[in-house]
Amino acid sequence: MRTYNEKISISHGMASTVALNFSNNFFPIFAITILGATNYQVGLISSLPPLIALLMTIPAAILLNRANAQKKLVAMSVLLARLMFLLMVIVVYLPSNSMQSWAFLVIIAFISVPNTVANIGWQTLISGMIVESRRGQFFSDRNRFLMIVGLFSTLLIGILMKDASESVLAYQILFTIAFGFGLLEVFFLMKHEEDVVSIESVGEKKKSMDWNIFKNSNYVWFLAAALFFNFSWQTAWGLFNIYNVRVAGATIFWISMFSVGSMLMQFLTFPLWKKWAEKYSNMRVFVWSAFGMATTPFLVAISTNLYYLTLIQTTAGFFLSGTVLILFNLLLEKSPEQSRTYCITTYNVLLAFVAFIGPQVGIWFLDLWGMENALNMSSALRFLSAGGFLFVYLRHRKSTIR
Q1: Which of 50, 62, 140, 261 has the fewest CB atoms within 10 Å, measured from its CB?
Q2: Would the pLDDT of 61 be above 90?
Q3: How many CB atoms lie within 10 A of CB 109?
Q4: CATH number at residue 371
Q5: For the segment 45-55, what is each residue's pLDDT rounded down to a tens digit?
């Protein structure tokens, strides 16, 4: 039976999913089709958020560590981020495409400031509200509910706006609806029941950084493998956006179908990954999902047929569900409880750095070798990163046997 906080967290996640599905999914096609963004600017859509997160993570962590009630800070951060959707509605009224596209990127960058506080705060908040024995079941159930909501909301967008890919009004409606659901996010965040820490105890207990986390070999090896995996994963993000819209000619409808196929597969397979992780261990099963993720860029490069690409995105959802479910659980598993906030903060700081570099490297591959070779190189890097997790798993198993 779910606890009160688990129920509220699922409701918050549903609102957040709709808000992001009505906005983030369509940033690249909006930038390319309406604002006339260049390939470099499309790459920045993926790279700017982690760059801002890199700059903001440590200040955000200090702010959160000193707060005696984190949920209020997280909720206000979400509200500020969602207010930026209203600026996206009016960005098209600037006098030139160049000004519009750069202003859009500035808005995306600014959104990342409160988003960084919200993301780190939510991770810390939810890890304290959900006991370790419940995490696997809870995150599996939560992700499945979120997949249902995401699937139907995205399918609705695809159907209603099938022929509206070049309509300014269509995107303005999407961003306005996203803002509305952002307000629901704030409402459900504030409904969580949080144990408030006294200011005195916060002042005694919290410090900016605990460097002793790097003495924990399990955390350090996981951190190295996870960072390389995320780097290799994200080299393809900008490439996919450009390939789908510029090369394959995908419209709002097809972008929606790519997402629907992926989410449907994730919904169906979350229980499988949860079952396998409980049976074989999180690390071992993550190796399987990482190797599966490595095939996607290579398979995408084979054809521009939109039905084929929908099929590839659907099958990719199988491995993505394992990645989404297990990677965060691995972070919590490998982070010592007494210094978990510092471990999560460090992970997010370094992750932001590689997330900024990854898409830019992907665009560099594109300029250097062309689209097909760039996607193939991304697959090769993903295979190497999966091998990194395999090494960490074998190392841990060897030390356990001893």
Answers
A1: 62
A2: no
A3: 16
A4: 1.20.1250.20
A5: 988 888 887 88
